[in-house]
Write a structure and sequence with these properties.
CATH architecture: 3-Layer(aba) Sandwich
Shape: globular
Number of helices: 8
Distance between the termini: 48 Å
Largest sheet: 7 strands, parallel
Order of helices and strands: EHEHEHEHEHEHHHE
CATH class: Alpha Beta
Radius of gyration: 17 Å
Length: 253
């Protein structure tokens, strides 16, 4: 019997990560999700995945603390052994993150370091540490943002870190190509989730403006994104590599 594919999704307790986990499970993929503080929410996601007939595990991880990564991957290795009797997984989805709307004039070094640790340094070294556990022929999907293409005031730091991720992803594709591993960027536009203190959901004027600037006339939902991640992990997407795929409904065209 063929082993199910296994995905590791950072930040899988809610929002885009949760939706991606469920969409992957619907397509027969088993899932390891991480959470920072939302242990109960993560457990609910695991239950939902199991109800779909797939295996799932939730592990605690702070992507901003690179010093914790060795211990984290020891827990991943243990989970792979205990749950799947294997030592490798197939798909790495670097999704965990926070939002912050801070004008350049009000930005502090503390804000900068925090966003950099979570969105760039953390992703860089988490991916590096994951490589020995990632199967040849696997996939890496890094979440970016529409704001690397269009500018929304207050997102200079966040978008700059994501711009670094977009460059990093191309290098991953180049250097991991001999192992058959692809690396792509998924860049959502404005999405109505809990992200950034539910900035879009809680501000009807902002939501209305963003909807008016989107070709399809609305802001995005988590359900618009999870299926794309599942597709990028499918065999149908095997020839997509080193690409930035924007999923924004056509924002600011």
């Amino acid at each position: 019997m063929e082993q199910n594919k296994i995905a590791l999704i950072t930040g899988g307790s809610r929002g885009l990560g949760k939706n991606a986990a469920l969409r992957l499970a619907q397509k027969g993929v088993d899932v390891i999700i991480t959470y920072l503080t939302q242990k109960d929410e993560a457990a609910k996601v695991v239950s939902e995945i199991e109800e779909l007939g797939q295996k799932a595990v939730a592990l605690q991880l702070d992507v901003a603390t690179t010093g914790s990564f060795d211990a984290f991957f020891q827990r991943v290795a243990q989970a792979l052994q205990d749950k799947w009797q294997t030592d490798k997984f197939d798909f790495l989805i670097n999704n965990a993150g926070i939002g912050a709307t801070i004008p350049i004039e009000q930005s502090t070094e503390e804000d900068f370091d925090n966003l950099m640790n979570i969105h760039f340094k953390g992703v860089y070294f988490l991916t590096q540490k994951a490589l020995p556990l990632l199967n040849d022929g696997g996939r890496i999907i890094n979440l970016s943002t529409g704001t690397t293409r269009f500018c929304v005031p207050g997102y200079s730091m966040y978008a700059s870190m994501k711009g670094a991720i977009e460059t990093f992803t191309k290098y991953l594709a180049k250097e991991l190509g001999p192992r058959g591993i692809t690396a792509n960027v998924l860049a959502p536009g404005a999405i109505e989730t809990d992200f950034n203190n539910a900035a879009i959901r809680n501000n009807p004027q902002v939501k209305g403006f963003l909807a008016s600037q989107t070709a399809l006339g609305r802001v995005g939902e988590a359900e618009d994104i999870g299926g794309i991640i599942a597709f990028l992990c499918s065999d149908d997407a095997r020839w997509i590599n080193a690409q930035r795929i924007e999923a924004s409904g056509g924002m600011f065209l």
